[in-house]
């Protein structure tokens, strides 16, 4: 296939940028990937920053013409994530933006999410990086750029150890792929947006993307598996999922996710966290608070990396602008050091930096968590109170709290139970992960438990602190891997609940950092669906909610002497705790 590269210049404000359009980059199997390169107008070889995704390089070019949008702007498009092209060029780099195989202007076929089932995406990225390094306009020093999907691609690339990839800077990536798509076993809808193009996302620029399930299973076997999946009343009650399962063409990646609700080989084969153990180049990890599973993933990745590394946990809100322009100052300091040899002192600074909500202080350390912590319990008590003191009365006197949730097919109301602390009298700092131990009885064989923790100010204004999710049938714990305040669920099988039995459900509360100021209360809210619109969800893309429960469920939450329902939270030992 012969393509002419179009070299021309464009103007961005006062700046003139040379653009090499539609470069054809050969992969080792003969497939060609498409890429654009943006750089200064003279012939000086420069370090290159490569951005690669399935979202289409032409969409990324909107960074030159579209002012950055913040949520809840309806113009916010979650897929414009490759960075500020004009600034990359101004800082003296070549910005290379490429399309992964099977998408955009590239050739080839992508099979399954992260091409698990086809050519590994890391392998293609290796070939792309080494090709760019050999071009006369590149000086042989290569880094990578871009958030979210682009960030995950950086990890997959670095794990292949291409010789010319000198460092990466990852913001907001998704790593453990099961944890990206099922939170506590509850399906999350935002990956649908990235794949189908819904709710504020353009989605994948499909040209030839195919389901791995359809590759692996024959038609008869697949029909049987689909029929089995449709027995889940949550799935059967949600029109989009019925449609996806019945008509998977053009929704093939989302089909694969819906068809695999348990963790295991399907997700582990090319899990970036597993692959990251091979990375020895410098890695900078940046994530903002508010989406706990992404904070969790960055910490998990940080812990397995062996080379020079940084972890920077930033402030709420959870979503950057699109086109993405934040974090560039830190990124260019990182690359000035590792790609240009500028000794700017960045490696003399602590490895871990954490913004603490509430106090709005930045805490630094060599590790996560950045301070010594002690897990302490806050007990659910009658009259919707949260207290450091446990309940002494039995269930006959401290009768359980409860709520009935009708399916969202017949109601718009999401029932929420809330428990509150007394106002804190002194600043009280919490940093780390936590747990919610809920003794509950349900009248069905499954439900969702969704717990959201809020910092509530005296006037009623509030901000999300952290969340925890658990599908009741996924309640099994790995006792060897679980610790106080950090439970571990394998999610490898679903065990129906015996209706009417009181079970202890342990929800993992995602890592966070917050100080409760004097006069503020900690509020724990429990539901089995989440409100579709509130102060927090308005900051996320429209599809960023979880699959609702498709059957009516009555829940009783026991919190008496025999059933000590409680939150187990990470109090720093230097802060007050009462």
Written overview of the protein:
It comes from Actinacidiphila reveromycinica. InterPro entries: AB_hydrolase_fold, CocE/Ser_esterase, Galactose-bd-like_sf, Xaa-Pro-like_dom, Xaa-Pro_dipept_C, Xaa-Pro_dipeptidyl-ppase/CocE. By secondary structure, this protein is an alpha+beta fold. It has 2 domains: 6-205 and 264-349, 3-Layer(aba) Sandwich (Rossmann fold), CATH 3.40.50.1820; 373-572, Galactose-binding domain-like (Jelly Rolls). Helix content is 20%, strand content 30%. It is built from 15 helices and 26 strands. The strands form 6 sheets. Strands 16, 17, 18, 20, 23, 25 and 26 form a 7-stranded antiparallel β-sheet that branches. The mean pLDDT is 94.
CATH topology of the largest domain: Rossmann fold
- Fourth CATH level, the homologous superfamily of the largest domain: Alpha/Beta hydrolase fold, catalytic domain
User: Helical amount among residues, as a percent range?
Assistant: 10-25%
Separate helix tally: 15
Q: Structural class of the secondary elements?
A: alpha+beta
C-alpha termini separation: 70 Å
Strand content: 25-35%
Please state the overall shape, judged from the principal axes of the Cα atoms.
Answer: globular
* Reported CATH architecture of the largest domain: 3-Layer(aba) Sandwich
Low-confidence stretches: none
Oligomeric state: single chain
* Name of the CATH first level of the largest domain: Alpha Beta
- Main β-sheet, in a few words? 7 strands, antiparallel
Counting DSSP E segments of at least 2 residues, the number of strands comes to 26
Radius of gyration: 24 Å
Query: If you average the pLDDT, what whole number results?
Result: 94
Number of discrete domains: 2
